[in-house]
Design brief:
- The protein has helices at residues 2-16, 24-30, 35-46, 50-67, 73-79, 85-96, 100-104, 156-168, 171-178, 235-253; strands at 130-135, 138-148, 186-194, 199-207, 217-221, 224-232, 264-267, 278-285.
- The chain has 286 residues and is α+β, with helices and mostly antiparallel strands.
- The chain has two domains: 2-104, Homeodomain-like (Arc Repressor Mutant, subunit A, Orthogonal Bundle); 130-285, Alpha-Beta Barrel (Multidrug-efflux Transporter 1 Regulator Bmrr, Chain A), CATH 3.20.80.10.
- Strands 1-6-8-7-3-4-2-5 form an eight-stranded antiparallel β-sheet.
- Strand 3 (186-194) and strand 4 (199-207) form a beta hairpin.
- Helix 2 (24-30) crosses helix 3.
């Protein structure tokens, strides 16, 4: 339950500093996680980003104060982090469905997002198929790109664009032709996070034994104990669900924790939209 406790500490920090200009780095430090790992874990467990949570909570607080005080709307806008009354009104309307002026006049219902409490299922209803293995270090060859983690959705859109790019330029076919290691299929992984730039280094590659081919890069995956989870079905649907079960059910029910090394997503089927597509999630544990 250490992960849940550390995430809850981070949430308490956000609640205590809702009116402050806090960063994802500040918040992640409370959970003793890297900003990228914290953001990813938070999204997996809550289905929203840190930025979305902060915005919803601030606008919930703003609505309460708007209806229970005589504070000017322009002052509320500045208090809750908006540069202009116009930007405050736009965000307020997007969440509540009415303007601040309409809310003050009691012309509609407000939408409240309550303080978040992380809860987990310590016993899953459905079994999870996984295996534990230990492997020596091995080589992945492929292509990589540095992606920015700023914004509400982080690097997710850029990761999707990167996969489309390597599919269209023939890189995926090249990698599949090189695949000669124990792991069969394509590998997606974040192998580095830069605190200074708030960027990740994302890889699309495959396990390969041999000299690095021209035009590709190589990365050595360190020796580790791995928990390998199987997901069957359309990748866009089953992979996020499996990640959520790993963090909300498997980790709290077992004596393992994430080692902090890169996790791997292994795509084993040519059609990621197929109902029978097979994906493996490799999580390094300790």
């Amino acid at each position: 339950m250490a992960l849940v406790e550390s995430l809850q500490k981070a949430i308490e920090y956000m609640e205590a500093h809702l009116l402050d200009d806090i960063t994802i780095k500040d918040i992640a430090e409370q959970a003793h996680l890297s900003p990228y790992h914290f953001q990813r874990t938070f999204v997996i467990l809550t289905d929203m980003t840190v930025g979305e949570y902060l915005r919803r909570r601030r606008l919930t607080k703003a609505a309460h104060e708007l209806c229970n005080s005589c504070t000017k709307i322009i002052d509320l806008a500045y208090k809750y982090g908006y540069q202009t009354p116009e930007s405050f009104t736009k965000a307020f309307h997007k969440q509540h469905g009415l303007t601040p002026s309409e809310a003050r006049k009691g012309m509609g219902n407000l939408q409240s997002y309550n303080r978040l409490v992380i809860q987990v299922n310590v016993k899953g209803v459905e079994p999870m198929n996984y295996q534990l293995i230990e492997r020596e270090s091995f080589q992945v060859v492929g292509v990589k790109e540095r992606l920015n983690c700023d914004g509400d959705i982080g690097p997710s859109r850029d990761i999707g664009r990167f996969w489309s790019q390597v599919g269209q330029d023939g890189t995926i076919n090249q990698l599949l032709g090189l695949n000669n290691g124990q792991i069969s299929g394509l590998i997606g992984a974040t192998v580095d996070y830069s605190k200074e730039d708030n960027e990740i280094e994302y890889w699309v590659g495959t396990e390969y034994k041999g000299s690095t081919p021209d035009g590709l890069f190589s990365y050595e995956v360190s020796a580790a104990k791995w928990a390998i989870f199987e997901a069957v079905g359309p990748v866009a649907d089953v992979v996020p669900k499996t990640w959520k079960k790993i963090y909300s059910e498997w980790f709290p029910s077992n004596d393992y924790e994430h080692s902090g090394a890169p996790s791997l997503e292994v795509y084993k089927s040519p059609d990621p939209t197929s109902s029978t597509a097979k994906t493996e999630i490799w999580v390094p544990v300790k």
